[in-house]
Design a protein that fits this description.
Length: 266
Protein backbone atom coordinates (compact mmCIF):
# COMPACT_ATOMS: atom_id res chain seq x y z
CA UNK A 1 0.00 0.00 0.00
CA UNK A 2 1.20 3.51 -0.86
CA UNK A 3 0.47 6.08 1.85
CA UNK A 4 0.28 9.81 1.18
CA UNK A 5 0.74 11.54 4.52
CA UNK A 6 0.22 15.25 5.09
CA UNK A 7 1.40 16.20 1.61
CA UNK A 8 1.60 19.93 0.90
CA UNK A 9 2.79 21.58 -2.29
CA UNK A 10 3.37 25.11 -3.51
CA UNK A 11 5.51 26.31 -6.37
CA UNK A 12 7.01 29.41 -4.81
CA UNK A 13 8.06 30.36 -1.32
CA UNK A 14 5.09 32.64 -0.76
CA UNK A 15 2.70 31.07 -3.26
CA UNK A 16 -0.62 29.50 -2.42
CA UNK A 17 -0.77 25.92 -1.26
CA UNK A 18 -1.93 23.85 -4.23
CA UNK A 19 -2.06 20.84 -1.90
CA UNK A 20 -2.60 21.57 1.77
CA UNK A 21 -2.36 18.46 3.91
CA UNK A 22 -3.45 15.57 1.68
CA UNK A 23 -3.77 12.09 3.21
CA UNK A 24 -4.55 9.15 0.97
CA UNK A 25 -4.02 5.39 0.88
CA UNK A 26 -3.57 3.66 -2.49
CA UNK A 27 -4.00 -0.07 -1.82
CA UNK A 28 -2.48 -2.85 -3.89
CA UNK A 29 -4.78 -4.72 -6.24
CA UNK A 30 -7.36 -1.93 -6.34
CA UNK A 31 -8.20 1.29 -8.16
CA UNK A 32 -8.26 4.62 -6.34
CA UNK A 33 -9.90 7.54 -8.14
CA UNK A 34 -9.27 11.23 -7.43
CA UNK A 35 -11.61 13.75 -9.04
CA UNK A 36 -11.16 17.51 -9.23
CA UNK A 37 -11.97 20.57 -11.26
CA UNK A 38 -9.31 21.97 -13.57
CA UNK A 39 -6.58 23.73 -11.62
CA UNK A 40 -7.44 22.07 -8.31
CA UNK A 41 -4.10 20.25 -8.09
CA UNK A 42 -4.95 16.68 -9.06
CA UNK A 43 -2.13 16.48 -11.62
CA UNK A 44 0.26 17.81 -9.00
CA UNK A 45 -0.90 15.15 -6.55
CA UNK A 46 -0.53 12.36 -9.12
CA UNK A 47 2.98 13.49 -10.08
CA UNK A 48 3.99 13.40 -6.42
CA UNK A 49 2.56 9.91 -5.91
CA UNK A 50 4.31 8.71 -9.08
CA UNK A 51 7.62 10.19 -7.92
CA UNK A 52 7.80 12.69 -10.77
CA UNK A 53 7.63 15.64 -8.37
CA UNK A 54 8.60 16.19 -4.75
CA UNK A 55 6.20 17.54 -2.12
CA UNK A 56 7.02 20.75 -0.28
CA UNK A 57 6.07 18.99 2.94
CA UNK A 58 4.74 15.59 3.93
CA UNK A 59 5.67 12.14 2.67
CA UNK A 60 4.73 9.38 0.25
CA UNK A 61 5.55 6.05 1.87
CA UNK A 62 5.64 2.61 0.33
CA UNK A 63 6.16 3.70 -3.27
CA UNK A 64 7.44 0.59 -5.10
CA UNK A 65 10.50 0.52 -7.33
CA UNK A 66 8.45 -0.36 -10.41
CA UNK A 67 5.96 2.32 -11.40
CA UNK A 68 4.45 3.74 -14.57
CA UNK A 69 2.92 7.16 -15.12
CA UNK A 70 0.61 8.55 -17.80
CA UNK A 71 0.71 12.37 -17.67
CA UNK A 72 -2.29 14.60 -18.29
CA UNK A 73 -0.91 15.71 -21.66
CA UNK A 74 0.12 13.06 -24.16
CA UNK A 75 3.43 13.53 -26.08
CA UNK A 76 1.94 15.22 -29.15
CA UNK A 77 4.92 17.27 -30.41
CA UNK A 78 7.43 14.45 -30.82
CA UNK A 79 8.81 13.80 -34.30
CA UNK A 80 9.89 10.26 -33.50
CA UNK A 81 7.48 7.52 -34.46
CA UNK A 82 5.33 5.73 -31.92
CA UNK A 83 7.55 2.65 -32.31
CA UNK A 84 10.69 4.69 -31.66
CA UNK A 85 9.15 6.36 -28.62
CA UNK A 86 7.99 3.06 -27.14
CA UNK A 87 11.40 1.49 -27.79
CA UNK A 88 13.03 4.43 -25.99
CA UNK A 89 10.69 4.08 -23.00
CA UNK A 90 11.38 0.36 -22.91
CA UNK A 91 15.16 0.94 -22.84
CA UNK A 92 14.76 3.36 -19.94
CA UNK A 93 13.04 0.57 -18.02
CA UNK A 94 15.66 -2.00 -18.86
CA UNK A 95 13.47 -4.05 -21.20
CA UNK A 96 14.86 -5.96 -24.15
CA UNK A 97 14.08 -4.70 -27.64
CA UNK A 98 12.28 -7.95 -28.39
CA UNK A 99 10.07 -7.66 -25.30
CA UNK A 100 9.12 -4.10 -26.20
CA UNK A 101 8.35 -4.96 -29.83
CA UNK A 102 6.14 -7.87 -28.84
CA UNK A 103 4.24 -6.09 -26.08
CA UNK A 104 3.94 -2.79 -27.97
CA UNK A 105 2.62 -4.62 -31.02
CA UNK A 106 0.00 -6.37 -28.92
CA UNK A 107 -1.11 -3.12 -27.26
CA UNK A 108 -1.16 -1.16 -30.53
CA UNK A 109 -3.48 -3.81 -31.93
CA UNK A 110 -5.74 -3.91 -28.88
CA UNK A 111 -6.06 -0.13 -28.80
CA UNK A 112 -6.31 0.11 -32.61
CA UNK A 113 -3.53 2.68 -32.98
CA UNK A 114 -4.10 4.47 -36.29
CA UNK A 115 -2.65 4.82 -38.82
CA UNK A 116 -0.01 2.72 -37.07
CA UNK A 117 3.12 2.74 -34.90
CA UNK A 118 5.42 3.72 -37.80
CA UNK A 119 3.87 7.20 -38.03
CA UNK A 120 5.51 10.18 -36.26
CA UNK A 121 3.64 11.05 -33.07
CA UNK A 122 3.31 14.67 -34.19
CA UNK A 123 1.18 13.43 -37.11
CA UNK A 124 -1.22 11.44 -34.92
CA UNK A 125 -4.61 12.65 -33.77
CA UNK A 126 -5.08 13.60 -30.12
CA UNK A 127 -6.81 10.32 -29.39
CA UNK A 128 -4.08 8.23 -31.01
CA UNK A 129 -1.36 10.22 -29.24
CA UNK A 130 -3.16 9.41 -26.00
CA UNK A 131 -3.10 5.72 -26.92
CA UNK A 132 0.70 5.90 -27.24
CA UNK A 133 0.93 7.50 -23.79
CA UNK A 134 -1.19 4.71 -22.34
CA UNK A 135 0.74 1.96 -24.15
CA UNK A 136 4.09 3.04 -22.66
CA UNK A 137 2.65 2.57 -19.16
CA UNK A 138 1.66 -1.03 -19.88
CA UNK A 139 4.86 -2.21 -21.59
CA UNK A 140 5.58 -4.47 -18.62
CA UNK A 141 3.91 -5.25 -15.28
CA UNK A 142 4.53 -2.70 -12.54
CA UNK A 143 3.50 -2.42 -8.90
CA UNK A 144 2.16 1.13 -9.20
CA UNK A 145 0.19 2.67 -12.07
CA UNK A 146 -0.61 6.40 -11.99
CA UNK A 147 -2.80 7.68 -14.83
CA UNK A 148 -3.91 11.30 -15.14
CA UNK A 149 -7.24 11.35 -17.02
CA UNK A 150 -6.21 8.42 -19.26
CA UNK A 151 -9.49 8.40 -21.22
CA UNK A 152 -9.02 11.92 -22.63
CA UNK A 153 -9.58 11.93 -26.40
CA UNK A 154 -10.30 8.20 -26.60
CA UNK A 155 -13.31 6.73 -28.35
CA UNK A 156 -15.62 4.24 -26.67
CA UNK A 157 -13.75 1.15 -27.89
CA UNK A 158 -10.34 2.43 -26.79
CA UNK A 159 -11.77 3.53 -23.44
CA UNK A 160 -13.12 0.03 -22.91
CA UNK A 161 -9.69 -1.48 -23.65
CA UNK A 162 -8.00 0.90 -21.19
CA UNK A 163 -10.52 -0.21 -18.57
CA UNK A 164 -9.64 -3.83 -19.32
CA UNK A 165 -5.92 -3.10 -18.97
CA UNK A 166 -6.49 -1.42 -15.62
CA UNK A 167 -8.54 -4.38 -14.40
CA UNK A 168 -5.80 -6.79 -15.52
CA UNK A 169 -3.20 -4.73 -13.65
CA UNK A 170 -5.32 -4.77 -10.50
CA UNK A 171 -5.70 -8.55 -10.73
CA UNK A 172 -1.91 -8.77 -10.92
CA UNK A 173 -1.72 -6.85 -7.64
CA UNK A 174 -0.83 -3.36 -8.89
CA UNK A 175 -1.86 -0.27 -6.97
CA UNK A 176 -3.75 1.92 -9.45
CA UNK A 177 -4.32 5.67 -9.00
CA UNK A 178 -6.45 7.41 -11.63
CA UNK A 179 -7.71 10.98 -11.92
CA UNK A 180 -11.09 11.84 -13.36
CA UNK A 181 -13.49 14.73 -13.83
CA UNK A 182 -15.05 16.41 -10.82
CA UNK A 183 -18.41 14.65 -11.22
CA UNK A 184 -16.95 11.12 -11.20
CA UNK A 185 -18.77 8.72 -8.89
CA UNK A 186 -17.02 6.91 -6.01
CA UNK A 187 -14.02 9.23 -6.24
CA UNK A 188 -12.08 11.21 -3.67
CA UNK A 189 -12.79 14.87 -4.39
CA UNK A 190 -9.83 17.25 -4.34
CA UNK A 191 -10.83 20.84 -3.62
CA UNK A 192 -9.04 23.76 -1.98
CA UNK A 193 -5.93 21.63 -1.55
CA UNK A 194 -7.65 18.90 0.46
CA UNK A 195 -9.19 15.51 -0.26
CA UNK A 196 -12.78 14.77 0.57
CA UNK A 197 -14.12 11.24 0.95
CA UNK A 198 -16.34 9.84 -1.83
CA UNK A 199 -19.78 11.49 -1.77
CA UNK A 200 -18.83 13.55 1.30
CA UNK A 201 -20.01 17.09 1.89
CA UNK A 202 -18.86 19.42 4.67
CA UNK A 203 -20.90 19.06 7.89
CA UNK A 204 -23.07 16.33 6.38
CA UNK A 205 -23.54 13.11 8.30
CA UNK A 206 -21.64 10.33 6.55
CA UNK A 207 -21.67 6.58 6.97
CA UNK A 208 -18.21 5.07 6.44
CA UNK A 209 -17.60 1.34 6.38
CA UNK A 210 -13.97 0.49 7.11
CA UNK A 211 -11.93 -2.67 7.30
CA UNK A 212 -8.42 -3.12 8.73
CA UNK A 213 -6.17 -3.72 5.73
CA UNK A 214 -3.69 -5.84 7.66
CA UNK A 215 -6.29 -7.68 9.73
CA UNK A 216 -5.83 -5.43 12.76
CA UNK A 217 -6.07 -1.71 13.46
CA UNK A 218 -7.16 0.27 16.48
CA UNK A 219 -10.47 2.10 16.44
CA UNK A 220 -9.43 4.25 19.41
CA UNK A 221 -8.01 7.10 17.30
CA UNK A 222 -11.20 7.30 15.22
CA UNK A 223 -13.76 7.29 18.02
CA UNK A 224 -13.40 10.99 19.00
CA UNK A 225 -14.41 12.01 15.46
CA UNK A 226 -17.42 9.68 15.30
CA UNK A 227 -21.00 10.06 16.40
CA UNK A 228 -21.49 6.31 16.39
CA UNK A 229 -19.19 3.30 15.97
CA UNK A 230 -20.61 -0.13 15.15
CA UNK A 231 -18.08 -2.96 15.25
CA UNK A 232 -18.87 -6.01 13.14
CA UNK A 233 -17.00 -9.05 11.82
CA UNK A 234 -14.02 -7.75 9.83
CA UNK A 235 -15.40 -4.24 9.51
CA UNK A 236 -16.39 -1.13 11.42
CA UNK A 237 -19.24 1.22 10.52
CA UNK A 238 -18.73 4.83 11.56
CA UNK A 239 -21.22 7.71 11.41
CA UNK A 240 -19.57 11.13 11.42
CA UNK A 241 -19.94 14.74 10.26
CA UNK A 242 -16.15 15.03 9.97
CA UNK A 243 -15.64 12.43 7.24
CA UNK A 244 -12.58 14.11 5.72
CA UNK A 245 -10.54 14.09 8.92
CA UNK A 246 -11.75 10.71 10.07
CA UNK A 247 -11.07 9.01 6.75
CA UNK A 248 -7.64 10.61 6.39
CA UNK A 249 -6.74 9.40 9.88
CA UNK A 250 -8.18 5.94 9.21
CA UNK A 251 -6.22 5.49 6.00
CA UNK A 252 -3.01 6.56 7.70
CA UNK A 253 -3.68 4.04 10.48
CA UNK A 254 -4.06 1.07 8.14
CA UNK A 255 -7.79 0.97 7.47
CA UNK A 256 -9.34 0.54 4.01
CA UNK A 257 -12.58 2.18 2.88
CA UNK A 258 -15.32 -0.23 1.77
CA UNK A 259 -18.22 2.22 1.50
CA UNK A 260 -19.04 5.88 1.98
CA UNK A 261 -22.48 7.40 1.70
CA UNK A 262 -24.36 10.36 3.16
CA UNK A 263 -27.09 9.89 5.75
CA UNK A 264 -29.81 12.08 7.12
CA UNK A 265 -28.93 13.24 10.64
CA UNK A 266 -30.48 11.09 13.33
Amino acid sequence: MILVEGVRKRFSRRGRWVLDGVDLAVPNGARTVVAAANGAGKSTLLRIVAGASAPTAGHVRGRPASAAYVPERAPVRLRMTASQYLAHMGRLRGLSARTVRTRAGELCERLDLRPGPAVPIIALSKGNSQKVAVIQAFLHPVELLVLDEPYTGLDADASRVVGELLTEAERDGAAVLVSAHEHAAAAFLLAEGRLRAPNARPDRLMRLVLTPAGGHASIDDLSPLAREVIIGPGRVTVRTVDADRLLGLALARGWSLLEARPEDPA
